[in-house]
User: Fold this.
Amino acid sequence: MCIRDRTTAALAQGLAGKRRVYALFWATDESDPQRLVETWLDQNAYKVQDAWQGNVRFVTYSLPQAQTPLQPLAVSFVPLADLTGLAQSAGAVASGDVLEITLRWQVTTATPLRYKVFLQLLDDQNQVWAQRDAEPVGESRPTSSWQVGETITDRHGLLIPPGTPPGRYRLIAGLYDAASGARLRTPVADFVDLGALEVTRPAELLPRAAFTMNIVANQSFGEVSLLGFNRYPRGFSHAPETPLHAGDLLHLDLFWQADKAPTQDWWVTVSLGDLPAGRRVEGQAPLASLSYTAPQWQVGEIVRSQLDLALPADLARGSYTLRMIVGLRSANSAAP
Assistant:
């Protein structure tokens, strides 16, 4: 038996019955010059995360669970490929868990360009709650290597971030030029709607360590506490230090915890202070979502909310104060 066969057999046997693989890749040109281990994982598992820490790559895979049968599709992404099939691991996923998605592409045109596949989980306001951007087949089959007539089986693991409010969302997918960011279009849009996904509360409450908060708050409001938040220009969660400019959307991820069983509907108002001529810029949002209000939370549960604050197009360069008001909202009121 050759080394390739021995390696793949050992991987298949060692990972049988497992749910996750947490891999550290270091000096792979020397330790695995044929890329046998990572290629097997890319082709047989669902890559969830791939990040560099210094000169070491930390990669997470989800191992296949039972999937729905491959659903035939006929969506053309001009001028590259047709999306001809879709399968996913479930129609409902708990926050903090992974949705396994299989896409089947039929290549129609060869290209020297490298396109990335994007997957997004959206709410009714088109707010993005989960996202994955990656080159196809665990980044092992860039589109520049695709041949006309070839069928590509493309697996992706979409992490539903901890704290995502339970509810009904829609899943979309598409392709974009990794260099320019320009999306490929279908006959009707620059993405394809893959259908609805139900997000549920996890069976066990997730610990605070599962949540990424760049700014810690620890501010109690009685029934609920603000644990912390992240802020960045919308679309730049991968680069939160990106400077804000006039006309941008300031995006906030806010993390709340139920200190006791909430009895009323809590909302947050965020405003930008120190504006000239008494101008007022503010945004409002529930502490989770309109369909998952605070009285539905469990004691100790941590829930994430999102809010965008539109900066005026003529806002002068400088420093401004970000203020936050948390309060109760009655059935007849329009604000906290």
About this structure: The first strand starts at residue 20 and ends at 25.
